[in-house]
Structure formats: C-alpha cells, structure tokens
Write a structure and sequence with these properties.
The complex is a heterodimer. Chain A is α+β, with helices and mostly antiparallel strands. Helix content of chain A is 25%, strand content 20%. Chain A folds into 3 domains: 138 residues, D-Maltodextrin-Binding Protein, domain 2; 131 residues, Dipeptide-binding Protein, domain 1, CATH 3.90.76; 250 residues, Dipeptide-binding Protein, Domain 3 (Dipeptide-binding Protein, domain 3), CATH 3.10.105.10. Chain A has 17 helices and 24 strands. In chain A, strand 13 and strand 14 form a beta hairpin. In chain A, helix 3 crosses helix 9, helix 8 runs parallel beside helix 9 and helix 10 packs antiparallel against helix 12. The longest helix of chain A is centred in the last third of the chain and has 18 residues. Chain B is an all-alpha fold. Chain B is built from 12 helices and no strands. The longest helix of chain B has 39 residues. Classes of the chains: A alpha+beta, B mainly alpha.
Chain lengths: 615, 319
C-alpha cells in the first residue's frame, strides 16, 4: 500500500478488524505525521486497542433525539438544584450577542438575555418574552406580512429590578441597526422599517418589505433583547465600551456573578425569574477552553461536567466514550450542511490583479458533465457511515430541511457513470491515469479547514476522484485563517483560490432560505471589487436561478414559497452548482441524570435552561 | 557595578524595541482577522465588516498601528482587547495568580527533586542510582508534556478517578477542604510540568557538580579529613551551582507567562491559555501584551543572572 491510497479511517477499520497489529497501526499513524496525542485518542476510540472483529461490537450508542414532552418535572419551588456545570470548549469572550457572531458568545449571553420567541426542535415557535405568538386570527399579524404586533409578557423585570417594557424592544432595534454600533446582529434588523410602541407591553413592527420569514431576528440569537436603561449611554460608537458587555443585565434565569473572558462564567439564580418555580439549579458555571474530544470525555467518561456543547468528534470516539455509561449523546438537526463547492472560475489565472476572476472561467468545472461526474464520485453514504455516524445524514440538495422545501431528487454514487461522462466530455486518460484535454491536466486543489473529520472526508473523496482519473492535491488551512474574512488573506474560503473546497454552512432559522440562497445569486459573486465580502463563493451565475430567487422573495404564501424553494433546490441540483454532502447535526453530551435539556437545532443549546433539572 | 547595570539597562532599550517591532510585524503579516466566522454568516452585511475593521484601526498601515501601540504603551496604556474591549492589563491580572501558582509550584517541586537527585548522581557517578536518575531524566525530558498530560488523565482521571481533568479556579469549599480541592485540581498540571522541568534541571545539576567534584580543591578538602557531606555540600556544590543559578534565573520568566500546552490540556486559566485564545482570535493587543511582557522579563532576568554571577563568583568583576 503506498502512502497515496490509505486513509486513517481505513487503517482504523483494519486495526479494529484485527488485520494489522497495534504496533503497525501506531507506526503507520506516526509515519503519516499524526501527533502522539491524536494517536492516543484514536487508540482510545478504538476501544483501548482490544482486537475484536467489528461484527462483535456492541450495538450502537444510544442517541436521544429531542424529547416530545417539553417538561417532565413540575417543581413546587424555585431553586434547590445545586450547581449545574456546563462545558463550552470554545470559551465565551464577550456577553453581548449583538457584538459577536460567535456561537460561543451568543450561548454565553443566552444565560442572561432572552429573545421574544424561540424555535423548538420541530420548528414550532415558543414564546419566551412574548406573551403569545402573533397570528392573523388574533389580528396581530398582517395577512400581507408587512407588520407584526408583539404582545410582551407581563411582570418581567431586568436583573436590577427595572421592569421590562416595549421601550427595550424598540431600543434593541435602534441599537442593532445603528450603523455606528457595527452590530453583527444587524442583518436581521435591516428589514425593519420601524417599531412603534403601542403601549408598555405592545409593539408594532413594520417591515420594509413583506416576508414569510417575519419571525427573525426575534426568534434567533440576533434577537436577544437588551435593557434600554443599561445600554442607552453606549449606543453607536461607544457600544463596545459598555461595561454590561462583560457583566450583562438581562431577564434570564441567572444573574452574573463573575465572568472571566475565555475562561469561566459563574451565574446565580434569578429569584425574580418570570417563569414560576423555575429555574431548578441555583447556580450555573460555564467553563470554557480546551478541545472537543476532552470536553466529550469530561461528560461521558469522567462525569466532571453535566453538559458539553458542540462535540465535533468522530462518531467512533463518541460511541466509545458513551459506553462508559456516565452520559448520553444528544443530536439536534438545525439545517447545517457540510458541502463541497466547485469553483466556476480559474484560481490559477490572474486577470487585472485578481485570481479566480469572473473573466477567467474554470478550465473544466464550467462543463456540466464534469461537474456531474464529480458529484457522482462522492460516496456520501460511506462518509456518513464511517465518519459522522448518527450525527450526520446524507444530503442530496443544498437546503435540505425542513422537508417541505426538499424536492424529490437523489444523487447516486456511480463511478462508471462518472467515468463515461468524463470520456464524453473529451477528457482522455493519459499514461499515468490522469485525464487530459487539449494539453490540460485534470488536476484539482481541494481545500478545507484543519479538522480530523474533514481530513478523513478529503481522503475518501480523493481516492474516488483518483479512480475517475482526477489528480487531487489536498490542502488544509487552520480554521481561524480559513474562516476569517480579511480581504488580504488568500487562504480563506471567501477568496476560494482552489478548485474545490469543503465546509459547513449554518442556518439562521427554519425559513431562512432567502439568506442561504443568496450564495448563488449573480449579484453576490465574491470578487476583489467587493472585497470578497458578499456571499456567492462558487461564482455560479444563472439568470434562471436569479429569477426564481426574485420570485421567492415576493411570494408570501408559505405553500407557494415552499414550492419555489423546491425549484431553487432542484435548479442547483440539476446544475451541480454545489455538491451537498452531509447534513450535520449539532452534537452535545449530557450526564444521564440531567433531564429536559430539550435541545433544538434552531436555538441555542441553553434555550431551555430554566427547565433543566437533575433527577 | 552600578555603571555596569546602568549600561545594560540602556542597551536593553533598543533590544526591546527591536523585539516589539519584529513581534508586531509577524502578527500583522499573519493572515486572519479578529472577527472569526463573520465570513460564514450571511446575516452580517459587508459594511459591518468594514466598519469594524475601521473602528479597530485595522485598515491603517502596519507602521501607523505600531507607532500607536508603542506610544500608548509608553503612556502606560496596554490597550484593550479587540474582542471584548477589556483592558489587556485586567485580562493578564485575572490570570496571573493561577499561572504563578501552578508554574511556581511546579518549578519549586522540580528544584526539590532535581537538586538532591542531580547531586547524588554526580557524587556516585555510574552507580545504580545514577543510572536510574539518568534514565528518569531522559524519560522526563524526552516525553513531551502533551503526551504525559494525556497519559496522566488516562491513569488518574479515567482509570483511577482520583483527580479531575478540568482545572477549576472556582472552588466551593472552605478551610482545609478548600486547600485540598485546590491541590487536587492543580495536581496533574503541576506533576506534568515538574516532571519535565526536574528532568532538565537534574541533568544540569549533575553535569555541573561533576565538573567540580574531581577538581584539586575538593580533593584537598577530603585530604583535610572533612566529612563527606561537608565536602560535597559546602565545597563542591556551592561552586557547582553557579551555572545552575543562571539557568534557573533564565527560566523564571516562564513562570509568569504560562505553559502553553499544559494549560490547554487541563484548561488551566493561565496566561498561556489566554495567549492561545488571543492568537486564535487575532487579538493583537492581548498577544502583544503577553509576548512583550515575556520579552521584558527575559531581558531583565538575563541582567539579574549576570549580576548574580558577579555576586556568586568573586573571580568575575564588572568594571
């Protein structure tokens, strides 16, 4: 076996099956430049190195999907639960969700600040600071979706005793949409024309344009309401200097005791919390730092923590840890998707000082047959089974959930067909097995961020692409460089100076198709002229898609809109504008006795915190 | 002597300036920016991104940013974090006690192990003890801390369940229990660091004691009929430790700036993990604050080591 044609995952399988010895296994991994720490982790994940055939493995780990009943426990008093300890391996560094787009910071803020409403796992709206869900029947929602009337919950107070009123909702909008604040939550507020206070507990939100997605920003982490009396002095330019960014005052179930950025949040019960007899725990500690595998271990194996978030760890490792019996793995579906982009422009040609310019079409990805061949060579099922386990599902279309938006299409894995298509397209195999046409080699640079799952996925895809005569060079860029937005950084994904790249996009809500599909609009192509700060990374340009998008934008009937979303999905599928790979679930772990975490893929992991309890 | 110290202090100013300039340039040249996943978020309009870069002064040329940083440092202003606008000084003070406690204890422990082990190995060269000590030293020195750290977690946390994996500064106990809990949390990081450092120091102590133990004056001391402990401790070790003192002095800055890897493994909220978090967040003011402090400490302790030399070794004079 040459170094070219084995992957870590193959090796792990061989090792588990007992066909190679532990010593060989370690030597091979070390030879591949894998660190001792990682090898240790892999060995551990393989069940301490016992050689046992895979067929004798214990049945799969228990995955608790989100429970139907929201609360299984009716307390008669507030508190009494002691301390709940949660572990966020990326530590929060600021507790104002409007000034950071990081999930870690927004989760940390969510302990203290609350939105008007939130989506549960089944994408149903649940009121939090709102008294009820606006509806056309009650006269609080415009049938034309131009305005919404939010009735706010009575008797809610901020942590300092000031009552929560309509003024705070109006202020939050003013604060976030002020360009000087440079709020990262701004996007959702920009569609709002005005907010009018009707009385102390009622506001009327008027939108610039009617939209189906009227619940945002109020339903997601952009919509956490800030207290006017605290942040009023720190609006605009001064926003980032507010002491409350580090010591938030909110309406949430816990009040801040101490926050050490990038380390720990300590918060005590809010004795005046607006839900009767909640929360159960007297104190919450959110510890940060470290890495995902050890966070999983701290809950599943050693039981030091009650809950850990975002466990991007291979399924094998998670499963092995869960067998220790301390905790359970929780998977949520929130619409995130690992996908592969094929570059429509040539990253190796520079025109007017710009690589991957629209003026330089890609030498082969502009040919539909080539794109189809690449899509046919992606063994999604293997990737899901081997790497993601129960934390992923095969995705065939780009906007793959909820089901009402998904057209009935499937991408098959068929190397013969892929080979035939490439033959038809005129790409002939050379003596070394790599296809060429008009003197051009079919060679791709395939980049992604440094992450064990991603490198294993790259290895699987590379093997299949080699089988259809494509030479593949793999590149992995450290995550904080790959995902950064600085215009001078040629290695980040917005520049896309490669032929293929892979990452996960995340969703803002169950109906955010207008935001997500912006990534394929001709007006959004990432170029030097716009500092690569727009959304269309593949540089796919299609008049038909643009037209469908415009139509969807104007369509207010949810059923008809869903039909248009299906058509957009279908169009991208037919054009192979992108190769959807794996629908990625959010993975968390909770101790066995921690109940009613009621995680939702559409909300922060802590959205149901007031109702958490310990048995 | 005073003249020598003054001269050295004057020389250290351009040295530090040079260091800060190089550091700043490297950090600015590195790709990436402090806004994390903005590029991934379709809800953040590009104008916000540009506004933020402007607000933090990231669009200024590197030299302008450097001069700004330097002039405010001279005024005693360390700047504020890009990420949360916390004062860099506050962030460092928050973490300094933990770092000093964990690393200081580890260092003290390392000394307590290294001194006797190194001296005995040198005095009884090639004995069983010496071989054992040498093996221990090589083992400790060649095993990286990320390996021993994980090994300790496997043994003490996963298998034996004696010690917690995650370091906590927030301990709810009082009196003796508090102390015990603190030690329980700090035990593994301290052991990992002490193992590494004692191994290194043992080698130094052994070789410098070996250098003097065969010298004539030691033989003379023995010939005078002095007891063996007196010969070794008073005559040999005293002189042998001069180079060791220098090495120790040069390692002290590390106690203040933390242990990057060990802190990360055990989630010790020290300066090292702050540095890693800041590097990941491209938080230039914090990175500069920590790294520059380290540079100042290294320069200072170099000076102290040189001065100590003069005090310890009468043959050396600075005039």
């Amino acid at each position: 076996m040459s170094a070219e044609d084995w992957s870590v995952e193959d090796l792990v399988q061989q090792y588990k099956a007992g066909s190679i010895s532990r010593r060989d296994f370690v030597a091979r991994l070390a030879g591949a430049g894998i660190s001792a720490g990682l090898i240790f982790a892999i060995l551990q994940a393989c069940g301490g190195g016992e050689k046992r055939p895979t067929s004798q493995q214990q049945p799969g780990a228990v995955v608790t999907t989100v429970p139907q009943a929201r609360s299984t426990f009716t307390p008669t008093r507030r508190g009494g639960g002691g301390t709940v300890r949660v572990l966020w391996w990326q530590a929060p560094s600021i507790l104002n969700p409007h000034l950071s787009s990081g999930t870690k910071d927004r989760d940390g803020s969510r302990i203290f600040l609350e939105p008007l409403v939130a989506f549960d796992a089944e994408a149903n709206l649940v009121p939090i600071l709102a008294a009820e869900i606006p509806s056309v029947e009650k006269g609080t929602l415009d049938p034309g979706r131009k305005w919404i009337i939010w009735k706010l919950k009575k008797g809610v107070t901020w942590h300092d005793g000031t009552p929560f009123t309509a003024e705070d909702v109006v202020f939050t909008w003013q604060y976030a949409s002020d360009p000087e604040t440079a709020a990262l939550s701004q996007g959702g507020y920009r569609k709002i024309e005005s907010i009018e206070k009707i009385d102390d507990l009622t506001v009327k939100v008027t939108l610039k344009e009617p939209t189906v997605d009227w619940t945002t920003p109020w339903s997601n982490s952009d919509g956490l309401i800030l207290p006017k009396h605290v942040h009023e002095r720190y609006k605009g330019k001064e926003a980032r200097n507010a002491p409350a960014n580090l010591k938030p005052i909110g309406t949430g179930p816990y009040k801040i005791v101490e926050f050490r950025p990038n380390d720990i949040i300590i918060a005590d019960i809010n004795p005046n919390y607006h839900v009767e007899n909640r929360p159960f725990f007297d104190r919450i500690e959110m510890k940060g730092g470290g890495d995902a595998p050890s966070a999983a271990r701290a809950v599943l194996q050693t039981g030091e923590f009650d809950f850990a978030w975002n466990l991007q760890v291979s399924w094998d490792e998670l499963e092995a840890m869960e067998k220790a019996g301390q905790g359970v793995i929780l998977v949520t579906q929130g619409g995130s998707q690992e996908h592969i982009q094929l570059n429509y422009t040539d990253p190796n040609v520079e025109i007017d000082g710009e690589r991957a310019s629209l003026k330089a079409p890609h030498p082969f990805f502009t040919d539909l047959r080539v794109r189809q061949a690449f899509a046919l060579a992606m063994n999604k099922k293997l990737i899901v089974d081997q790497l993601y386990g129960k934390t992923g599902e095969v995705a065939h279309v780009y906007y793959y959930t909820p089901k009402k938006y998904v057209p009935d299409v499937q991408q098959e894995y068929n190397l013969d067909k892929a080979n035939r298509l490439l033959d038809e397209a005129g790409w002939r195999r050379g003596p070394d097995g790599v296809r060429t046409k008009d003197g051009k080699r079919m060679k791709v640079l395939f980049q992604t961020s440094v992450n064990k799952l991603r490198q294993d996925t790259q290895a699987i895809i590379k093997q299949d692409l080699q089988k259809i005569g494509v030479e593949v060079e793999l590149k992995s860029v450290i995550a904080d460089v790959f995902f950064a937005a600085d215009p001078g950084n040629p290695d980040n994904f917005p520049h896309f100076y490669a032929d293929m790249q892979m990452y996960t996009y995340t969703r803002g809500g169950p109906d955010d198709y207008l935001d997500i599909f912006r990534s394929f609009l001709s007006t959004e192509v990432r170029q030097k002229a716009n500092n690569w700060a727009t959304q269309n990374t593949t540089r796919y340009v299609s008049k038909e898609f643009d037209a469908l998008y415009e139509q969807a934008k104007r369509e207010l009937d949810p059923v008809k809109a869903a039909e248009l979303v299906k058509q957009m999905n279908k169009k991208l599928f037919d054009d192979v504008a992108v190769v959807p790979l794996v629908g990625r679930g959010g993975v968390a772990a909770a101790k066995k006795n921690l109940k009613d975490t009621n995680l939702s893929g559409w909300a922060s992991n802590l959205w149901w915190l007031p109702y958490w309890h310990r048995e | 002597m005073t003249k020598f110290i003054l001269r050295r202090i004057v020389i250290s100013i351009p040295t530090l300036l040079g260091i800060s300039l190089v550091l700043f340039a490297i950090i600015s040249l590195a790709p990436g920016d402090p806004f994390g996943d903005i590029a991934l978020n379709p809800n953040v309009p590009p104008e916000v991104q540009q506004k933020l870069r402007q607000q933090l002064g990231l669009d200024d040329p590197v030299y302008v940013r450097y001069v700004k940083w330097l002039t405010s440092l001279l005024r005693g202003d360390w700047g504020v974090s890009f990420v949360n606008r916390a004062q860099v000084v506050d962030l460092i003070w928050q973490r300094l006690p933990t770092t000093i406690f964990v690393l200081g204890t580890a260092y003290l422990l390392a000394l307590l192990i290294a001194l006797p082990v190194g001296i005995i190995s040198a005095v009884k060269q090639y004995s069983l003890w010496d071989n054992l000590a040498t093996t221990f030293a090589f083992l400790g020195y060649s095993l990286p801390t990320f390996f021993t750290g994980l090994l300790f977690i496997l043994v003490f946390t996963v298998k034996l369940r004696w010690l917690p994996e995650v370091y906590t500064t927030n301990i709810e106990a009082s009196g003796v229990n508090y102390l015990l809990e603190v030690l329980r949390h700090a035990a593994m990081p301290i052991m990992v660091l002490a193992l590494f450092q004692s191994a290194e120091l043992t080698r130094y102590v052994r070789s410098s004691v070996l250098d003097v133990i065969h010298l004539d004056y030691v033989r003379t001391a023995r010939a005078k009929g002095l007891s063996e402990p007196r010969v070794v401790l008073v005559h040999a070790v005293r002189n042998a430790l001069i180079p060791v003192v220098t090495i120790m002095a040069l390692q002290i800055p590390a106690i203040f700036t933390g242990a990057l890897i060990t802190e990360q493994i055990f989630r010790v909220p020290g300066i090292g993990s702050l540095l890693i978090a800041s590097i990941n967040a491209h938080d230039t003011p914090v990175i500069m604050g920590i790294v520059f402090t380290y540079a100042v400490l290294v320069v200072t302790f170099n000076l102290i080591a040189d001065v100590l030399y003069g005090v310890l070794d009468p043959r050396i004079t600075y005039s």
